[in-house]
Amino acid sequence: MDLAHSLRLIAPETTLSIASLILLLFAAWSGDKASRTLSIAAVAVLVGCMFLVAPALCSGAMGPDVMAFNGQFRADAFAAFAKLLIYGSSAAALIIAPAFFERTGSMRAEYPVLILLAALGMGMMASASDLLTLYIGLELNSLASYVLAAFLRTDGRSAESGLKYFVLGALASGILLFGVSLTYGFTGTTSFAGISAALQGGIPTGAVFGIVFVLAGLAFKISAVPFHMWTPDVYEGAPTPVTTFFATASKAAALALLMRVSLEAFGSQAIAWRQIVMFAALASIVVGALGAIGQTNIKRLMAYSSINNVGFVLIGLAIATPQGAAAMLTYLVIYVAMSLGGFVAILMLRDDEGRPLEAIADLAGLSRTRPGLALALAMIMFSLAGIPPLFGFWGKFVVFQAAVQADYVALAAIGIAASVIGAFYYIKVVKIMYFDEPMDAVKGRSDWAHGALLVIMAVFMSPLGYLLTKWLDGLAQAAASALFVAA
């Protein structure tokens, strides 16, 4: 492939890189007073990048024409699907941030720059077709994320979350690098296609260890059990817009990377890693559900909900079929929308002095003091629980359907039974809002951007969302097909 063709394929990444540098210079020149202008510009850049990647998804791009830089980078329909989620979630994290940070006087001009740099790394993760590209994208995202987690420099909880995320992230990166070195040593290549070809005739013991370590490093990024320990503390301590970013864009990128590595590089030896993924899936469902039951902080509850939902997504990966991959992508879109709506609702929980309220007890009687907010939050909670007719049910349905069609009936049955546990803590939040005596704690006025996003997500989660199933499933099938053609 010639250089011009490669440069055309990386147009979104080039745009993000140049825009980040320009905005960084503008931030250094203008200072924090330009932070809102910088945020608007960053949102415009991300929306522009969404238009750049959309044609690849709509056309079902796949095959040798989507390869760039001698197989280092793949701009296929799967990458486009993931990038649309990443860029859209990143734009939402920028839209909701100014109203939150400006109340405490902590809005900084570097926030939109860090979001763009993290989005650049996540885009590289989704398009990686080589272990070296994978690691560069992962570290670019991680370095920006560590700073974002500790963005409130005067808040002890934020500093603590940033430190924990950095230390445990460095450990996970070390585990991943060790797995990469073992994989390279026993296959002789870092290319996903080359690794898959090398493992066709059998898998040496050393390569098995390499797969295990690579998957362990990636499991940290998606907060799957037993590598989930950082999630509740980081979600609680990080500023809520940053937590929103972690729960949506970062989660989508990490899951896309895990799918790419598992199904492309190690797809020919799915039997070597399927049991690991099955364990992580079921353990995440159970641990996420049980861990959430005793939580009193709404952000920690959403952290355990994130762990729980990752388990359902991993059921699709354990199947290792195009139907399972398409089900994962469908679930991921719905989960990102539910998480975005949930955290926007949390941002709207403020007292009369504008201070954020995070205790679940503060939601008591919310249906009588803020009925619209209570209704939207209840819809999101029921949707996260997978209760029909809300759209969250469809995500779980397609994953379990794919498992049954692949003859993994026992896996689906255990997942369905475990999902009942998770319904308890979601319903508990709704019960507190609708049946407890009003605390009348939520009195702060909501920002218009928060309200608009919450309404959009609530409508998407409503039964109206089912009108999009044919279109969404078609895009997911096109993206998954590109992934398996590559394999």
Automatic annotation (TrEMBL):
What Pfam families does the database record attribute to this sequence?
Proton_antipo_M
The EC number(s) this enzyme carries = 7.1.1.-
Please name the GO terms that the record assigns under molecular function: NADH dehydrogenase (quinone) (non-electrogenic) activity; NADH dehydrogenase (ubiquinone) activity; quinone binding
Which reaction is this enzyme known to catalyze? Answer: a quinone + NADH + 5 H(+)(in) = a quinol + NAD(+) + 4 H(+)(out)
Membrane disposition = Multi-pass membrane protein
Q: Which InterPro entries does the UniProt entry name for this protein?
A: NADH-Q_OxRdtase_suN/2 (IPR010096), ND/Mrp_TM (IPR001750)
Major location category of this protein: membrane
Report any one BP term from Gene Ontology: ATP synthesis coupled electron transport
Compartments, record wording: Cell membrane; Endomembrane system; Membrane
Q: Name one GO cellular component term.
A: plasma membrane
The chain positions of domain NADH:quinone oxidoreductase/Mrp antiporter transmembrane read 128-422
Q: What keywords are assigned to this protein?
A: Cell membrane, Membrane, NAD, Quinone, Translocase, Transmembrane, Transmembrane helix, Transport, Ubiquinone
Q: Which domain of life is it from?
A: Bacteria
Q: Where are the transmembrane segments?
A: 6-26, 38-57, 77-97, 109-128, 165-187, 207-230, 271-294, 301-320, 326-349, 373-394, 406-427, 448-468
Q: Which family does it belong to?
A: Belongs to the complex I subunit 2 family.
Its subunit composition reads: NDH-1 is composed of 14 different subunits. Subunits NuoA, H, J, K, L, M, N constitute the membrane sector of the complex.
**Function, in words:** NDH-1 shuttles electrons from NADH, via FMN and iron-sulfur (Fe-S) centers, to quinones in the respiratory chain. The immediate electron acceptor for the enzyme in this species is believed to be ubiquinone. Couples the redox reaction to proton translocation (for every two electrons transferred, four hydrogen ions are translocated across the cytoplasmic membrane), and thus conserves the redox energy in a proton gradient.
Protein known as: NADH-quinone oxidoreductase subunit N
Q: Write down the species.
A: Novosphingobium fluoreni
What's the encoding gene here?
nuoN
